[in-house]
């Protein structure tokens, strides 16, 4: 099984999700732009992304949901902040928002927090219908790490993913055949 999805698949997945459910679209988009673990994503409270009723430009992954209880900071793009604002303004969300410690992502029927299994089912369903293969939330994390590594370095990826050991981060790096081909073509020609 492929550990990442390419840009075309990302676009298909997001386009499909955006047409079907604002909550699901927001979760998938947030996962792809932050690299959050499944448990971290569904463990977020409203106050984690919107302290003082304003969407923060920096997401503080709180120690209560972070692996090894290690808090970390992840910048949020203006695009995700706009999307979160749109999500907050949906009627169902506005009705549910009664306290800052309400779950950010909740069941449509019970208003309880989603479980990791719920998010896994959502990603599996949407990916199967949009890109023709089943992926997991962890695939979204791998995709995030691979995309960031193309524009930055392993140390930055390590911090964003919350890894204590750089060797752990290395398993998230994937070189596509097109990246390898471009690197070889840009290496110059040999004169014989």
Report what the structure shows:
This protein has 192 residues and is mainly alpha-helical. It has a single domain (7-185), classed as hpI Integrase, Chain A. The protein is built from eleven helices and two strands, in the order ααααββααααααα. A two-stranded antiparallel ribbon has the order 1-2. Helix 1 (7-20) crosses helix 7 (116-131) and helix 2 (22-34) runs antiparallel to helix 5 (78-88). The mean pLDDT is 86.
Low-pLDDT parts are none
The name CATH uses for the topology is hpI Integrase, Chain A
Strand percentage lies at under 5%
* CATH C-level class: Mainly Alpha
Topology order in helix (H) and strand (E) letters: HHHHEEHHHHHHH
Name the descriptors.
4% strand, mainly alpha, 11 helices, two-stranded antiparallel sheet, 192 residues, single chain, 56% helix, hpI Integrase, Chain A, 2 strands
Short description:
This protein has 192 residues and is mostly helical. It has helices at 7-20, 22-34, 38-43, 46-49, 78-88, 91-96, 116-131, 137-151, 154-161, 166-170, 177-185, and strands spanning 58-61, 72-75.
């Amino acid at each position: 099984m492929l550990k990442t999805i390419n840009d075309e698949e990302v676009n298909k997945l997001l386009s499909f999700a955006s047409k079907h459910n604002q909550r699901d679209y927001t979760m998938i988009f947030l996962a792809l732009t932050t690299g959050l673990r499944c448990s971290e994503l569904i463990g977020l409270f409203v106050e984690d992304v919107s302290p003082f009723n304003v969407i923060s430009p920096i997401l503080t992954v709180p120690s209560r949901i972070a692996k090894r209880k290690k808090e970390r900071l992840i910048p949020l793009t203006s695009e995700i902040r706009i999307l979160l604002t749109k999500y907050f303004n949906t009627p169902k969300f506005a009705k549910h928002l009664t306290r800052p410690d309400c779950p950010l992502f909740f069941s449509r029927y019970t208003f309880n927090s989603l479980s990791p299994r719920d998010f896994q089912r959502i990603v599996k369903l949407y990916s199967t219908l949009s890109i023709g293969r089943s992926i997991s939330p962890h695939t979204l994390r791998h995709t995030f790490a691979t995309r960031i590594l193309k524009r930055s370095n392993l140390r930055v990826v390590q911090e964003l993913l919350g890894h204590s050991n750089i060797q752990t981060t290395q398993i998230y790096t994937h070189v596509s055949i097109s990246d390898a081909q471009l690197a070889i073509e840009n290496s110059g020609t040999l004169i014989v």
